[in-house]
From TrEMBL, chain A:
It comes from Pseudoalteromonas rubra. The lineage of its organism: Bacteria, Pseudomonadati, Pseudomonadota, Gammaproteobacteria, Alteromonadales. Pathway: Protein biosynthesis; polypeptide chain elongation. PANTHER family: ELONGATION FACTOR P, ELONGATION FACTOR P (EF-P) FAMILY PROTEIN. GO terms for cellular component: cytosol. Involved in peptide bond synthesis. Alleviates ribosome stalling that occurs when 3 or more consecutive Pro residues or the sequence PPG is present in a protein, possibly by augmenting the peptidyl transferase activity of the ribosome. Modification of Lys-34 is required for alleviation. One of its GO terms (biological process) is peptide biosynthetic process. May be beta-lysylated on the epsilon-amino group of Lys-34 by the combined action of EpmA and EpmB, and then hydroxylated on the C5 position of the same residue by EpmC (if this protein is present). Lysylation is critical for the stimulatory effect of EF-P on peptide-bond formation. The lysylation moiety may extend toward the peptidyltransferase center and stabilize the terminal 3-CCA end of the tRNA. Hydroxylation of the C5 position on Lys-34 may allow additional potential stabilizing hydrogen-bond interactions with the P-tRNA. Belongs to the elongation factor P family. One of its GO terms (molecular function) is translation elongation factor activity. This is Elongation factor P. The keyword Protein biosynthesis applies.
Length: 188, 332
């Protein structure tokens, strides 16, 4: 894998830090008028998902990470692995619990997810920005309530819990923003 | 790579990076600066942007070009100046008295939120001033332009002791490495051999964000090893007559109680070149005209360089340097 100098740093660049593939979120050069320049870099560790800051001496080189994103449809889970398929080549990939992390609660069959591969193996799964899921459990709400008055917790078919308006009932399908985990609307 | 050739004019960004309204405010700041110095009878001067000599500073990268013309048939290398310091000191040696300049300075390898490889610098010199008298005048200018509170000031040593609990003048390399590692910079600290790099790392990353937030903050008495072109302090030669000004997360100005001794100056250039060699950088020829002027006699003086673009950022509340210059390097 290629090495990257700090001059090539930019958002989205994948580099190796402490043996873990990372994605650069922000890169800022700090250069005193008289003195050494540094790059203050905000990175996301792609396996643990942790965001941290790291400082480099400008001009330093860092090993690149062989990381690529691929869009695959979610098929099923056998309890140990979650299976995804490329809808064009029908090639299948299995991701483990670690790669899935919190995304497991947003997996809907046939939804196309972004699978991040490091050296060919899945390390992260990003669900679509919006998913539609059925409510399996929630307190009965009051009639006539409108959205935005606080709401109540609702458990979805995947186990995810989101706050929904009081008028939404068990058995209804709702649209959720997976990035914020927030209720968007009812699905008719 | 160059899909713009086929993509057509739609890929070309022609518009300025600053709004016209901001450029009006910028012009007003420049007018205020000139009025400030006119009222104090400081003479405005202009010195060459292109000169035959450059600087030895290990952390400055110079743009160069070649002049071909009458008397220079085989080509004479010319360097875009990283600051007008040497030429202005030659004017001082020639008896100019107090002078200031607003002009472009050029530094390769510098670009970012607070940097553009070509930027506007205000530099001025005050014969008879020491660094503290000049700091007072910088403070006056800041208040005249920004209407900001009175500046605070603390020594480099105080800044480290207050914010990091360590004396930068006596700490060992191991203590500096250990502190840098504790602060999350182990990756640099473990391998770093240069004391000043560790000090600069700690200062930039751990002290600068904490100072000068409410009011501008002067830091004075930089370590002798970072004296640059400042005199060493007569009472405590561990420190130099160098100061910097910080405000709202930006380094705004760097000033010196100017070194006037030609022999000492020449020796510092040699030290820079030795360091350049150790770092694998090409040596830079010492500016013979500047050294000759020092030999002739530079009056005792203090001088300071202030980043005008950053000052305009503060005056207009902008967060990126490109928002206060007509065209940043990506649009130039």
């Amino acid at each position: 894998m290629a090495n990257y100098s700090t001059n090539e740093f930019k958002g989205g660049l994948k580099i190796m830090i402490d043996g873990e593939p990372c994605s650069i979120l922000e890169n800022e050069v700090v250069k005193p008028g008289k003195g050494q320049a540094f790059n203050r870099v905000k990175i996301r560790k792609l396996i643990s998902g942790k965001v941290l800051e790291k400082t480099f001496k400008s001009g330093e080189s860092v090993e690149g990470a062989d990381v690529m994103d691929t869009d695959l449809a979610y098929l099923y889970t056998d309890g140990e692995f979650w299976h995804f398929m490329n809808n064009e080549t029908f090639e299948q990939i299995a991701a483990d619990e670690k790669a899935l992390g919190d995304s497991v609660k947003w997996l809907v069959e046939n939804d196309v997810c972004t699978i991040t591969l490091w050296n060919g193996s899945p390390i992260a799964v990003t669900p679509p920005n919006f998913v539609e899921l059925e409510i399996t459990e929630t307190d009965p709400g009051l009639k006539g309530d409108t959205a935005g008055t606080g709401g109540k917790p609702a458990t979805l078919s995947t186990g995810a819990v989101v706050r929904v308006p009081l008028f939404v009932q068990i058995g209804e399908v709702i649209k959720v923003d997976t990035r914020s985990g927030e209720y968007v609307s009812r699905v008719k | 790579m160059s899909h713009s050739a086929s993509g057509g004019a739609s890929d070309i960004v022609w518009a300025p990076s600053a709004s016209i309204d901001t450029l009006r405010q910028r012009a007003a700041v420049l007018a205020k600066i000139r009025a400030f110095f006119a009222a104090r009878e400081v003479l405005e001067v202009e010195t060459p942007s292109l000169a035959q000599a450059s600087v030895t500073d290990v952390h400055l990268a110079t743009f160069s070009t070649t002049f071909v013309g009458p008397g220079h048939a085989s080509g004479t290398p010319l360097y875009l100046q990283t600051s007008p310091e040497f030429a202005m000191k030659r004017l001082l040696a020639a008896g100019s008295g107090a002078i200031y300049q607003i002009g472009k300075a050029f530094r390769n390898e510098e670009s970012g939120r607070h940097h553009n490889p070509e930027f506007t610098m205000l530099e001025w010199y005050r014969p008879g001033f020491d660094e503290f008298a000049l700091m007072a005048e910088v403070n006056d200018l800041m208040q005249a332009i920004l209407g900001c509170p009175e500046a605070e000031s603390l020594s480099y040593q105080q800044a480290f002791i207050t914010h990091l609990g360590l004396d930068p003048l006596s700490a060992s390399m191991d203590e500096l490495r250990q502190l840098a590692s504790q602060r999350g910079h182990g990756h640099i600290a473990e391998q770093e051999q240069h004391r000043d790099t560790l000090l600069q790392l700690l200062f930039c990353m751990e002290i600068e964000p904490l100072i000068g937030q409410q009011a501008p903050c002067f830091v004075y008495y930089f370590p002798a090893s970072q004296a640059a072109l400042a005199q060493l302090n007569a009472e405590d030669p561990r420190v130099a007559g160098r100061f910097e000004l910080y405000y709202r997360g930006m380094e705004l100005a760097n000033g010196f109680n100017e070194l006037t001794d030609e022999v000492e100056q020449s020796a510092r250039f040699d030290e820079d070149n030795a360091l350049r060699a150790a770092m694998g950088l090409a040596p830079v020829a010492k500016d013979p005209r500047f050294l000759a002027a020092l030999a002739q006699g530079l009056p005792a003086c203090a001088g300071v360089a202030l980043g005008v673009d950053r000052l305009v950022m503060l005056a207009t509340g902008k967060t990126q340097l490109k928002e206060v210059i007509a065209f940043d390097v990506d649009r130039a």
